[in-house]
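BUG: 3D viewer hangs when loading the predicted structure for this chain

Environment: internal workstation, default settings.
Expected: structure renders.
Actual: progress bar stalls at 90%.

Input used:
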Amino acid sequence: MRVLAETRLGNIGVAGLACLTLVIYATVDLPLSSHLLLSAGVMAMGYWLARRAAGMRLALVYLSTAASLRYMVWRGAYTLGLDRPGDRIFAYLLFAAECYALLVLLAGYFQTAVLRPRRPVPLPDDTATWPSVDVFIPTYDESPDIVRRTLIGAMGMTYPNKTVHLLDDGRRPAMRELAASVGAQYHVRADNSHAKAGNINAALAVTGGELIAIFDCDHVPVRSFLNVTVGFFTKDPKMALVQTPHHFYNPDPFERNLWLEGVVPPEQNVFYHAVQVGNDFWNSVLFCGSCAVLRRAALAEIGGIAKETVTEDAHTSLRLLARGWNSAYLDIPQAAGLATERYAFHIAQRLRWARGMTQIFRLDNPLFMRGLTIPQRLNFLNAIQHFQLGLPRLVFLLAPAVYLLSGLHPLAANPWDVLAYGFPHMLLSLMGGLACARSMRLALWAEVYEAAIAPYSALITTVTMIAPKRGKFNVTEKGTTLDRARFDWRHATPNLVILVLALAAAVAVPFRVTAAPLEAATLIIAGLFNLYNILILLAALMVALERPQQREAHRIRREFRVRMHDPASPGRIVVGRSVDLSESGARIRIDAGEAVPAETWLSFEGVHGWTPPVRFEVRTRFADALPGDLPDDPASAASCDLGGRFLEPSEADRHAIIELMFGEPDSWTIDHTHRAPSAGMSDLVRAPWRAAVATWQRNRAGSA
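Structure tokens produced before the viewer hung:
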């Protein structure tokens, strides 16, 4: 099966042969006792396959599809015959939400049918034939420190035939000076029409490079970015877009506020390391607005960056593909930026994406756009319908509580039928989704991510579907600080209301069982679903408990040889290694017996040799260096760590430090380690409690 799936024709053939089996399984009737045994066997097989998902992914997908189709046939044929009008409305609403979720699941299976990451295409030996590249860095009101990193990274790219342009829609003198200080071109325009799309289109009119590389002003490219992406354009004259992943060097709000850094993969990893890899197979890569290269001729053919929606990037790639151009996705992080740092910023960013994708559906629907292949239509449609999941997610969160509190029935079925048909569908859907995620997501966490924004996305997509031209482009805030922990009551209120209803429903279960003993089994099953929703809502709500962020410059784990010069003893040098590094300071590991004064001078050994010494103030001495901080330092008894800050670094010093932090081609590695499905479940149960306790302890320590 794996060999056949290596080709597009083979994959379609395997899918076609499997469909006959799926149809037979999904439609044949069995006695209830037989179906319970079959369901138990199917779920056990699915769990076994999930633990070996890397090699058995398609088998698990087919098994999941069969169970889901069987469930939906049963739901539609046998569970909707309710007499009371209230019951019927409730039942059809839940059934519609389930149908929509199944469509998204099946579309996702198709989208990730073949996950075959590309390798870079080598550039021609003759550098004179390399195409010219204009590097665009749009900015509006972001901090100069954030923009400086990206400018330094862009100027440091080793591709010779490039010109870096800072596109300042804020028209700030400080940005003009910053561009001049690093040798970049500076551009402004008369107005801010069409936001980022208009800014880029204005720069297209006054530049002439054959290719356009675009970076958001917080995405810092590594030196090799253009060397590993431009080769695709020299090989394929119809290549219009090469997209690379968006990698983030700080934790997102879920990792940060739930204290899960390094435990749960970042929320966006599934899209950038699974979905986009699948899109690449079908030539339907989405342009993500940054960390990408586009062909100028292709942009000119479609009139530049699309400006009719607030997701100008995805809209642009849709139009390019409709005109017959090709796209490629290189799943190697070649730039790193800032993830949203607060729950409120995360919501604002996701709502812009939800509004923009809904606008595309209304204004340039991929189902009806001429020039697209069927896979391209399906994959873009799935990207759009993913952002419509807010309303179905609200239905799933509210359905058990509504039944337990009001007595309205969502389906007409006995509990054993629900177990026989429903559990295999849910469990195998979960396992199949994880298998297609390339170990980039843990079990149940998709529900947490959806629940965290569901009330807002449900509203914004509904409004945009009715009035697609409403709304404007909003810039996501980055680089903020927070002195103390605080709970974002404003943005958590909708989910807090739903949680109160779910808790009330949990309390009502024993009373309902006593009052209606004939419904006891059904009530208990609904109570279990309600308990599951409570766990999801607790995790989603604790994301609103903002963890303090007092550093303006994020520390990044970096290992370089370090020399420490004692100003009182010019000939004495202490040698160590860096553990982490930021623009303002570092953590250095040295031998435990070494004496280092409170103020010293540091040099780092980078790819270009030793950096000029920079003054360093030692502020903290950790007697117990943490095991595993450095890969070849398993024990800490013979070493200690020094934490400190740089004192009055010059522009040259800051430039060198930024290049050390961001410039290495292999700076950003992705962990594809497969974890058992149970790992995500245990993390989900523990995360809210752990976050509350850790935040309370941190606040208490700060007060002391």
